[in-house]
Write a structure and sequence with these properties.
153 residues; 4 helices; alpha+beta
């Protein structure tokens, strides 16, 4: 790739492209391939306007990565924020600047939409991602611990 990847907001017309990237993202996190589930999940996000999906494009206009922002609230700041939940670049496009371009596009979108901030989590072992976030001014939380609990019927 010769230039910095372009980014744009995905629309429902991009469903098949985004679903394929989302399925690959889920496989990266050790989920079984399941394009139908990925497509259904992404279609629901588009149809219910529950997230913003940004695409990174190569020189030929092909999608090589995406990030997904979920609107949430920060009670402490009493403001709207975004959770940057998903960030994925295809293996062939890694180190092309696509991840950085997506993070910067997410930052612009956050600013343009009056959100206070973005938050994300990453694996403790994902040193490359941590370095990328730090290089773009993201601050690692040293105060709060994250917890989760799976709730089953």
């Amino acid at each position: 790739m010769s230039t910095t990847p372009l980014t744009r907001t995905a629309t429902l017309a991009d469903l098949d492209v985004v679903a394929a990237l989302f399925d690959a993202y889920r496989q990266f996190y050790e989920q079984a391939p399941d394009l139908a589930t990925a497509r259904h999940f992404i279609r629901d996000r588009f149809e219910h306007e529950e997230s913003v999906i940004l695409l990174a494009l190569d020189d030929a206009g092909q999608a090589i990565g995406f990030c997904q922002l979920y609107p949430v609230f920060c009670s402490i700041e009493a403001r709207r924020t975004y959770l940057l939940s998903d960030l994925f670049v295809t293996p062939a496009a890694r180190r092309s600047g696509a991840g950085r371009a997506l993070l910067l596009a997410a930052e612009r979108h956050t600013l343009e939409n009056g959100r206070a901030k973005m938050e994300l989590t990453t694996a403790r072992t994902n040193q490359a991602a941590q370095a990328a976030y730090a290089s773009l001014g993201w601050q690692r939380d040293e105060v709060y611990l994250a917890y989760s609990k799976r709730v089953q019927a």
